[in-house]
Amino acid sequence: MAHLWPKIIEFISYSPYDPDWTPGERLTWIRKYRGLSQEVMARRLRIDPGTLARWEHEEKEPSGRYLIQLMMFLGSCKPD
Fold first, then answer.
1. What predicted TM-score, i.e. pTM, was given to this entire model?
2. CB distance 19 to 26 below 8 Å
């Protein structure tokens, strides 16, 4: 279903993004906005899907090289 998000947003011309969201909520929204499942985004980041899930649920924060990988990915990724 994740791959449908970009088309749904385009169709209704509305993005429910809220600037008060937590970092994990923002990460989840960006992933969905780009139409990626956790598995696909994790594969592209070269991390375990469980790690991405922990970041999204704010059980852990990306740091070190993982933070750099995430920032590079977010800066260069386009919707599928």
1. 0.70
2. no
